[in-house]
Amino acid sequence: MRIGFIGLGNMGRHMARHLLRAGHLVTVHDTRPDAAAEHLALGARWADSPAECAREAEFLITMLPDPRSVEAVLLRGGAAEALPAGALWIDMSTSTPAVAERVATEVLDARGVHRLDAPVSGMARGAEAGTLQIFAGGSDADFRRALPVLETLGAPERILHVGPLGAGYTVKLMINLLWFSHLVATSEVLAMGVKAGVDLAVLRASLLASPAASNFLERDLMCVLADGDYDDSFAMALACKDLGLAVDLGRDLGVSTELSALVEQIYRRSKAQHGALAGEMSPVRLYESLAGQEFRLPRPVVALDTTAVTV
Ligand code: NAD
């Protein structure tokens, strides 16, 4: 299939590589031409502009940082105008329904171009492995049409059709909002527990054996606890963007978001302190400072028998 791909960053560069390896004819574009070197070596064609990237595409995939860049590429960059009638635009960026709707009403609908929102979870390592979780919003027909392409990027059982247009963006924002909230709540608990004198490994094992257990504590936080890795593959700038979009969505819907707004502020403080390019787990460091120690498990990490622990 002829696929245009725009946005070759931490996620998109792996995704475009999978499409090339699956034998698709892929044209790539990014504001950083050097980001395309590995794809050109695999046979991709380079496009000098978003419009050129879209011109002959049956599918146009965008993997861009935020709603502003999606709008820049589709409208000002001319990709929407250039897409042939019948083409399908798949936006895999974490963005908002409002921008995609504007692109559709201003250009796509009149030209007979279809669209799907299909944001992803799974971090850069999921993109690299081709095992992303994908949350698609759009019609049944467009989802079925996109499925063979999506299956090149994600694990088939993790590709979910979550509803009509816009539902994919919404589900993705809700996932990130809850995950960032887990990070802040868990960090606060660990800071208090260790400062009160409980061993970090014992505290973690006790929490995991209790009704307060979470995937976040068991699995996702391990990169910090075992390796001191705050996950630079997802930048604080993007995390703060996602939190801002989620809180804005709550405002638009008239749903109060006291907790989410607080989590956003804590993330913004960490971004100011640790930098826009720091990893998404950097807010943990705010709580390590409060605890007066880094949260690290001794090596090798030993499982404790805490089956008797309850809350
Ligand atoms: P990134 O910043 O690493 O990559 C974005 C790419 O888009 C860059 O190569 C940049 O040069 C390019 N770009 C920006 N504006 C452009 C424009 N106007 N025209 C052409 N190219 C442009 O971001 P990422 O980490 O790859 O994330 C991409 C999207 O996926 C974001 O919406 C993010 O929230 C989401 N996401 C990221 C992760 C992760 O772990 N990194 C996980 C899930 C979802």
Characterization of the model:
Helix 9 (167-195) packs across helix 14 (258-274), helix 9 runs parallel beside helix 15 (283-291) and helix 13 (236-253) runs antiparallel to helix 14 (258-274). The strands form two sheets. A six-stranded parallel sheet has the order 3-2-1-4-5-6, with helices on both faces. A three-stranded mixed sheet has the order 7-8-9. Helices cover 53% and strands 14% of the residues. The termini are far apart. The protein has 311 residues and is α/β, with parallel strands linked by helices. Nicotinamide-adenine-dinucleotide (NAD) binds next to helix 4, strand 7, helix 7 and helix 13. Residues 6-12, 29-32, 35, 63-65, 69, 72-73, 93-94, 120-121, 123-124, 233-234, 238, 242 line the site of nicotinamide-adenine-dinucleotide.
